[in-house]
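tool_call: predict_structure(chain=1)
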Amino acid sequence: MQVSLRASQSRTRLLQTRSLLRIGGTRAFGIGPGHYKQRLVILGSGWGGYGLLRGIDKDEWDVTVVSPNTYFNFTPLLASTAVGTLEFRTAVEPVRRYAPKINYYQAWCDDVDLKNKVLTCMPATRPPNAEPTGDGTVVKHHNPNGEPFHIRYDKLVVAVGAYSQTFNIPGVKEHAHFLKDVRDARRIRSRILECFEQANQPFLSDIERRNLLHFCIVGGGPTGVEFAAELHDLLHTDILRHYDKSLTRLAKISLYDVAPNILGMFDQNLRKYTEKTFSREGISLLTSHNVDKVEAGKLFVKEQGEVPFGMLVWSTGLAPNPLVQSLQGVKKDPKTSSIITDDHLNMIMEDGQANEDVWVIGDASKIEDAPLPATAQVASQKAKYLVKKLNRIVNDVEHKKPFEFHNQGSLAYIGNWKAIYDRTGTGAGEDGFMSKETGKMAWLLWRSAYFTMTLSWRNKILVPVYWFMNCM
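tool_result:
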């Protein structure tokens, strides 16, 4: 009878433990009385989420990260990796480098129950025995068990970022390449080489070759401009060395934008300098052009009609993350659907009150009455601010200082060892020291900035090594 009772008690304890794990109690054991650590859940592993993960005190917080990516993308280097100037590993940092001090789940967060502090998540891994996709992508909601899982939180940081904006133009998602992830860069690099190999076939006419070697870029922001510059460098270095000159002469780069100018956030003189540089290098700038639809190998432009292409790269801004769109009872920006926060980065509810347990940073957020650009610089500074705040909170120390953005200027590479640097919006003034730079000096600033921003010592070594190798 006594043995039976003990067995029953053991089964009860086992079921209670499983129940805790089911609701995300991943550290329900091993923490003695008086040593309970509050659970901080970070959604996303981008500039905001990963920056917070790096600095947060993991000895004081029970940290859980939920992200569909097992790594952080160093986005400024993606254009370089797409053309082979740098290797893909130089643009990523693994999230699990901080395990076992943290819990990490490769998953999407589908819903946030703000009242009960429970997250509903869906695995972002392929089901066992599933057919490989070839590029490692995962189709959402393919959970082998057919059920979501739940995670409880004490404090929550939403840093899920944003998606690429397509403006619901037909065919963009099916036929265009994006450049927000290292997987995108890998597909772009493969497609560039494929276009040249296809054009090299002996049975094609020059018109067919010219169409295959027409590289179109839609979006005149820093990402589109830098990719056009990196692609131009590739065509006039490695491609020129390894392919017949009669073939490489047929290659063409066209940059489209609906705005009247490219690089709208830069000083007017810097924009003109870039436009002149691109014109000399043979890059076609087609501003004030509207794309109506995209088909396989065809771009339909209102001002031009049908435009054949071999590869299309789409870089036209940001669309809201589905999680942000699904949140109810939260104040959002009517134009961008970004979550509105106060100057302490706390989520603001529809009733105007701040949620003291939830912070939103990165491209998914917007500070009320203080709009800031959706850039890596802003997200990174918000993450650093929140690190200080949360590390004080966990030690019962007040942190009343609001977030302040310190603009460090804008950089863009424009090809052939040239770049532009703009600090005119930072308080430096039009004639301040190094308020505007172009050419080789700006290129040195661009290189040094990206070198110092790379996070791990491994990449601090690898990036300049690959740059040096490409100069040889």
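agent: The first helix runs from residue 2 to 22. Proceeding to next step.
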